[in-house]
Write a structure and sequence with these properties.
Blueprint: H1 6-24, H2 26-36, H3 46-49, H4 55-65, E1 72-79, E2 87-94, E3 97-104, H5 107-122, H6 134-139
Antiparallel strand pairs: 1-2, 2-3
Helix pairs in contact: 1-2, 4-5
Family: Belongs to the ribonuclease III family. Mitochondrion-specific ribosomal protein mL44 subfamily.
Protein name: Large ribosomal subunit protein mL44
GO molecular function: double-stranded RNA binding
């Protein structure tokens, strides 16, 4: 028996959550998502789970959807350019606003990593971000209607 495609599983999950929302209300759908989906993310870094194939393309799309200018990459500094241990640091900007930066062995690698850094900042999933406070969710609002 062939296993279902990921898109089929995704659509089935969305349909299930939608049916809960339709029949029992949004608060019940939120409880389901919190109980059966978000709890699996406890202690995990969302950036390790979320595999972005084209970070600069996604960053461009997100900025455009928010009415902002397309991202612009700039070489901040480089060292050891003519050696085996070359390092480049690239920054990503939108309308002169700093979005993120990263280092890499080549300019293209540094640019890709800088786009990932910018996405982490935009979606507030960077390392400095606190974990989801599930105990507070149950006490103060989201899951109080259980």
């Amino acid at each position: 028996i062939p296993s279902p495609r990921p898109t089929m599983l995704t659509n089935a999950l969305f349909a299930f959550i939608g049916s809960i929302n339709e029949n029992s209300g949004q608060s019940r759908a939120e409880v389901f998502v919190a109980d059966f989906i978000l709890t699996h993310l406890v202690g995990k870094d969302i950036n390790e789970i979320w595999q972005v194939k084209n970070p600069m393309g996604l960053l461009t799309k997100v900025l455009e959807e928010n009415g902002r200018q397309a991202p612009e990459s700039r070489l901040i500094w480089a060292t050891g350019v003519s050696s085996v241990l070359s390092t480049y640091v690239v920054g990503v900007y939108s309308n002169k606003e700093f979005l993120g930066k990263s280092a890499g062995a080549t300019v293209s690698i540094a640019e890709e990593m800088a786009a990932r850094d910018a996405l982490r900042h935009l979606f507030e999933t960077d390392e400095k971000r606190a974990q989801i406070p599930f105990d507070n969710l149950y006490k103060k609002g989201l899951l109080i209607h259980k």
